[in-house]
Every structure is written in C-alpha cells, then in structure tokens.
Specification:
Bound molecules: zinc ion
Distance between the termini: 26 Å
CATH topology: CNF1/YfiH-like putative cysteine hydrolases
CATH architecture: 4-Layer Sandwich
Helix content: 10-25%
Number of domains: 1
Structural class: alpha/beta
Strand order of the largest sheet: 1-13-12-10-11-8-6
Largest sheet: 7 strands, mixed
Radius of gyration: 17 Å
Order of helices and strands: EEEHEHEEEEEEEHHEHHEE
CATH superfamily: CNF1/YfiH-like putative cysteine hydrolases
Shape: globular
CATH class: Alpha Beta
C-alpha cells in the first residue's frame, strides 16, 4: 500500500528519538519524532490509564501528571508552547490555534491534537498504539493522533483530518507518517478487534498501521504521500516501550511541530 521506511535515530539536546527519514530535509523547520525507550526521560501515562484496556468509566478527572519530561522536550526543541492530553482511545480532537501562555499545556482528554501555529509542539504518548503524523505543507497545518484499535474504530483519523481541514488543510495535500507501533505479526487479538475494524475472516493477528492507512486513504490522503515505519514496538523492546511487552506506565513521546512549508 505504502512505503515501509527505516526511521533514523537522532538526538535533540541529549534526548534520543526516531524520526521519519526524509521530512527533516524536505521540511527544514519541522520537528518530528518519537522518543527512544529511556526510562530516565520520564514520559508516563497518567495514573489509571491502562492503554489497550477497556476505557475506564467514567473518566477520571483530567489531572496532569508531573511534566518535567515534557518541559525538557519543549526546551530542547525550542518551542514556545507544548501541548499534551490524556489519551482515552476515542475520537476527540483538540485544536490549538489560540495564543496561549508559554510552557507545557495539559489540555485534558483527547486522542488527537491539531495546530496551525508554528510555535506549538503537539505531543501524544504511545507504547504499541500508532502515532499518526499529519502535515499540510501548503498551509502548515499539523496534526498528531494516537491511534489504537479503539480509536481507529471510533474514527480518530478522520476526525483529525476534518479538524485540519477546518484550519485550511486539504486531505489530498497531506503528507503522513505512521510511526513505531506493534506490528501485524505481534499483535494477537480477540474477535472484537477485527470486528470493530471491519476486517473479515476473524484473523488472530491484526496490523494496526494497515487499518490506519486504510482510514487515511478513505479520507482522501494520497497513498504516495504516506510512509509507514518499519519499527515494531514489541519486536524491539530495546528501543521502544511496549504495553504488550509489559510496560505499564512508561511511554514514548511522539511530537510534531514547526514550520513545514
Ligand atoms: Zn512485531
């Protein structure tokens, strides 16, 4: 369907991360990546959130955890504002177009963030779910989604693109990368997962990034503009945290921001 690409390991101010191989040269002002598995970086899921499990009901109050890891990332990347959210495997998107105070901003519950501001760094945390990086090079509208099977089934990808379009982006112009996530050989699931994703044949293994890519193409993204990371979070638990691999609180931080046009 689309190119599988080897991501490049890089560092910003001592913070190791993996990035899409071509974007930094094609879009010089853009910052994109997923932090490497390093416990001392300290990116954690908020307490009580068990990624991959059934969503907790009702939602706990949106209490931010301590934010030193995000503040370090903000300073290292030089962004005025960093935004983050508590991911709940839904389809809610938060737009970040407003002039806000500098610093790290916890915006509550959502699974995708969108901005048209080059001074704002979008972040989500992942550990098997798919980080979906979306950019419109013409309008500089950016989107970043956290897409597990529940979020994909709930329509988070289409919702994120719709919100980007409300800021002037066009789906047909988007450039998209699917970052490190659990691969189709590793992700063994019950029948509820293929049923929710509309996959026929009741397979025992599901490729989340394949399902995410299908949703992107359905939304109007050009297949030629889509790249998919070769990295699997469960095949390579040296480089990545994996919820399936036993990491319950630690996460990688996916980030996207800057001027891409
Ligand atoms: Zn794998």
């Amino acid at each position: 369907m689309s190119d599988r690409v080897a991501e490049v390991e890089a560092q910003i101010d001592g913070l190791p991360f993996f990035r899409q191989p071509d974007w930094s040269s094609r879009y010089p002002g853009l910052i994109q990546g997923v932090s490497r598995r390093e416990r001392e970086l300290g990116f954690k899921a908020p307490p009580g959130v068990d990624e991959g499990a059934a969503p907790a009901a009702p939602a706990a109050p949106a209490a931010p955890v301590a934010q030193p890891a995000w503040e370090r990332l903000r300073r290292a990347t030089g962004f005025r504002r960093l935004v983050r959210c508590r991911q709940v495997h839904g389809s809610k998107v938060i737009g970040c177009s407003d002039e806000a105070e500098p610093g790290v901003d916890f915006l509550g519950e959502a699974d995708a963030l969108v901005t048209d501001r080059p001074d704002t760094l979008l972040t989500v945390t992942v550990a098997d779910c798919v980080p979906v990086f979306l950019l419109d090079p013409d309008t500089r509208v950016l989107g970043l989604a956290h897409a597990g099977w529940r979020g994909i089934a709930a329509g988070v990808i289409g919702s994120a693109i719709g919100r980007m379009e409300s800021l002037g982006a066009e789906a047909a112009r988007l450039v998209v990368h699917l970052g490190p996530a659990v691969c189709g050989d590793c992700y063994e699931v019950g029948p509820e997962v293929p049923a929710a994703l509309g996959i026929e044949g009741d397979p025992r293994f599901v490729d989340l990034r394949h399902s995410a890519a299908e949703r992107l193409l359905e939304a109007g993204v050009d297949a030629e503009a889509l790249t998919i990371s070769e990295n699997c979070t469960l095949c390579d638990t040296t480089s990545f945290f994996s919820h399936r691999g036993g990491d319950r609180t630690e996460r990688m931080c996916a980030f996207l921001g800057g001027a891409c046009g």
